[in-house]
Amino acid sequence: MTDISTFSQPGQFWRGNLHAHSILTQGDLPPNQVVDAYKDADYDFMMLSEQYAGQVDAPSGGTRPVRSNAFAIIMGAVFEAPQTADGELWHIVAAGLPLDFEPCSKDETGPALARRAAKAGAFISIAHPTWSQLTAADGHSIDVAHAVEVYNHSCAVQSGRGDGWYLLDQMLNDGKRLTAMATDGAYFQNRDYDADGGWVHVKADSLEPNALLEAFKLGHYYSSQGPQIHSLSISGDRLEIECSPSDRVFVVGGKSGSASHTGRSFTKATVDLTQLERGIFESEQSPWLRVTVVDSSGKRAWSNPIWRDEL
Predict the structure, then answer these.
(1) Residue 259: which residues within 8 A CB-CB, separation 6 or more?
(2) 77 and 171: one domain?
(3) CA angle 50-132-119, nearest 5°?
(4) pLDDT tens digits, residue range 119-159?
(5) How far is C-alpha 48 from the chain's CA centre?
(6) Of 75, 85, 135, 284, which is most buried, counting CB atoms within 10 Å of its CB?
């Protein structure tokens, strides 16, 4: 039995969000009230990810007055830069930027800006692919990306375009070893209308921002709308999971097959992975798989992709 390292390594899970906006860039609340909203919702950390295209004086998102030892704030931004295949501006989440990071130049492209941010040590995530109508070629152009935003709550509630799995799955099938990020992307319109709907649980030794960023880069996190995943392990063709009370577990890979377990408020389940190879068009085993847990209200939690050659 091989335990998936995210769940078996030392440390604890910290709950947080890497995509939220204040009045500095199009949000409805000042920075201190955004931070307070996440504190009040029992988050452990967050990042004010203001759009940063030269209109904000630093990627700190105005958080200096509201930082504390009891609640971690990761420094970062959402970069807007030209241009996707559809002619739209890129939205690229960069977590862990240094305070002296130079503003975007007028003609700097999204891929170039992402490379510069990654070189400065940032964790790079491709934001809301469906809302931005990103193609697979767009995804591959951000060649330093660590993650794809597979759920953006603000996009989901405002336009029904909050999903990003189509892009991540294609990139995984092309061999890109990326992880899966859920966020709010909140603007706090009508106060909590688009907030507290998607987040991550990050396994780290401490709540220090550098420890959290290192855990993100190692993929030691999972994403959720509500359910919790306590452990995942694989032995041969069996996947075992422990979770908060849930009704369904799905496992999918890079082919059409899927495996599942269905019940009522179970907290442990075993999934037969041979089901993954039973699709009509299956010809070979997918090199990766991922797990979705669904609770009785339909809310989901998602593992990061699991690569079989790393087991």
Answers:
(1) 239, 250, 251, 252, 271, 272, 273, 274, 275, 276
(2) yes
(3) 55
(4) 999 999 999 999 999 999 999 999 999 999 999 999 999 99
(5) 15
(6) 75
Residue type, 254: G
CATH (domain of 295): 2.60.40
Q: How many domains does the chain have?
A: 2
Q: Which of 223, 251, 275 is the last residue of a domain?
A: 223
Residue pLDDT, tens place only, 42-56: 999 999 876 554 444
Residue 91 in any domain: the answer is yes
Of 84, 36, 75, which is closest to residue 52 (Cα–Cα)? 75
pTM for the whole structure: 0.94
Domain span holding position 236: 229-310
Residues 215 and 293 in one domain: no
Give the total residue count for the chain: 311
**pLDDT tens-digit series, residues 222-242:** 999 999 999 999 999 999 999
Question: Which one of 175, 202, 223 terminates a domain?
Answer: 223
CB proximity list for 79: less than 8 A, separation 6 or greater: 51, 52, 53, 90, 91, 92, 94, 104, 110, 113, 114, 117
How far is the CA of 35 from the CAs of 59, 68, 226, 262, in angstroms?
Answer: 16, 11, 20, 38
If asked whether residues 14 and 72 sit together in one domain, one would say yes
Q: Are residues 135 and 246 in the same domain?
A: no
Give the domain CATH number at 149. Answer: 3.20.20.140
- Residue 57 belongs to some domain of the structure: yes
Place of tokens 């204040």: 22
3-class SS of residue 157: helix
